[in-house]
Amino acid sequence: MGAVGLLCKGFLTGLSKVETHGMEGFLKLLDEREDPANRERGLITVSNHISVMDDPILWGILPLSYMFNPDNLRWGLGSYDLCFTNKGLSTFFTFGQVLPTHRSAHSQFGGLFQPTITQAIRLLSRGPFYEQDAPVKPTTSLKSPDLIDPFTNGHLTFSTNGHDTFPAPSAYLSRRHAWVHIFPEGMIHQSEDRIMRYFKWGVSRLILESDPMPDIVPIFIEGFDNIMHETRTFPRFIPRPFKNVRVTFGEKLDAEEVFGDLRARWKQMRATEERKEGQLEVGVLNEKLKYSPEAVSIRKECTRRMRQAVLDVRRQRGYPEDDPKNSLAETWLREGPGREGRKEDGSITKDT
């Protein structure tokens, strides 16, 4: 991660004009979290998604001293069909603390109940999650992430589809109360007025089910779409230099005030189900907790509030109020069956 961080920092500082807002408070939060043994809760950062290179280039704004402590760097969600298609890519992105995530539009294994979301919830939580305490540091080799090590506990690995095998990062105590970054739009959305698409509900699972309640920081990014705009010509794989980028960190949310009532409702639902069926493992749900109207209602409202928190940071940058209809999935059905490309309103979307 340090090598990639150096490349991203070199690009931003040497070939771009970077403007940050609120980063001092965010760095203070990272400093408080430096020692995993002293952390009391996880960290979720949430931002809009405007280019294929938002992550990792975004984190090039961090000082160099932060880039060589992977225990205090973000975990992200990466598209399985793009980032984990062969052993080389799997190894690279596994070392880069990216979790293999199936997209529903491309895989039957996608959705907010896939095993990767369970891993993300556990990374944010206290742990350990099994009868025997997990090792402090990983001991499995990441050079062959699709091979099961027969000499280790099966809980040190997980499968996304019943056939593959990946190291389970949440099995290690050094990763408890980790930092997870998420782009809840689920795809790139490039528009001149920086409108955001609706947020998908996976972010609500991280907020509702992580224990204890994580710290949550909303982020709004600008200019990365100019570095990797979807209309770019050959060579498309090269980031465009000499662009202006801005990263605005919102203040850490008062998570109890914003989400406390929803978490209380969720815990009550979960307790009721556990009295019926026995204790459920962290990040594991039965059918009612997945699909009941009450569970759906809680996730929907949690996601709406999270999107509003990012919109509040967007407003700080001088953008006008967002149309409330933009928060609804139904609004974006007007795009039609074609998921990618330029839309009627001039915006551009791209699956990532």
From TrEMBL:
BP-aspect Gene Ontology terms: cardiolipin acyl-chain remodeling; inner mitochondrial membrane organization
InterPro entries (alphabetical): Plipid/glycerol_acylTrfase, Tafazzin
Residue ranges annotated for the Phospholipid/glycerol acyltransferase domain, each copy included: 43-224
Gene Ontology molecular function terms on file: 1-acylglycerophosphocholine O-acyltransferase activity
Membrane association type: Peripheral membrane protein
A cellular component annotation (GO) from this entry: mitochondrial inner membrane
Predominant localisation class: mitochondrion
Subcellular location: Mitochondrion inner membrane; Mitochondrion outer membrane
Region Disordered: start-end pairs: 314-352
Sorted UniProt keywords: Acyltransferase, Lipid metabolism, Membrane, Mitochondrion, Mitochondrion inner membrane, Mitochondrion outer membrane, Transferase
Catalytic function, reaction form: 1'-[1,2-diacyl-sn-glycero-3-phospho],3'-[1-acyl-sn-glycero-3-phospho]-glycerol + a 1,2-diacyl-sn-glycero-3-phosphocholine = a cardiolipin + a 1-acyl-sn-glycero-3-phosphocholine
Segments of skewed composition (Basic and acidic residues): 314-325, 332-352
Family as reported in the entry's similarity comment: Belongs to the taffazin family.
Designated name of the protein: Tafazzin family protein
